[in-house]
Write a structure and sequence with these properties.
With 87 residues, the chain is mostly beta strands. It contains 1 helix and 5 strands; from the N terminus they run βββββα. The longest helix has 5 residues.
Length: 87
């Protein structure tokens, strides 16, 4: 929750494979004292805990992005499913 999009310029080590990750990852949210980022189309947890996080950061820079835009629209859902809304 906030007023802007954020990204993380990240150098990290995958806790499972020991792969070195170097990316500019969009931040999706917070999780267990760390962050959830998108990396290669997947959600990954970044933080110090090997139990709660997939990626251990060795270097990280938080980058403030564009302002968020909230758009609301009223839709009559009588007789329609949520699948219709997604389509």
């Amino acid at each position: 929750m906030g007023t802007n999009f954020y990204s993380l310029e990240l150098k990290a080590i995958d806790n499972l494979t020991l792969e070195h990750i170097d990316c500019l990852c969009p931040i999706l949210g917070a999780w267990q004292g760390g962050l959830i980022v998108e990396h290669d189309g997947k959600s990954r947890a970044v933080g110090a805990s090997e139990i709660n996080h997939n990626l251990f950061p060795t270097e990280a820079v938080l980058i403030k992005g564009n302002p968020l835009k909230v758009i609301t629209k009223r839709i009559k859902m009588n007789g329609r499913s949520l699948r219709w809304l997604i389509e």
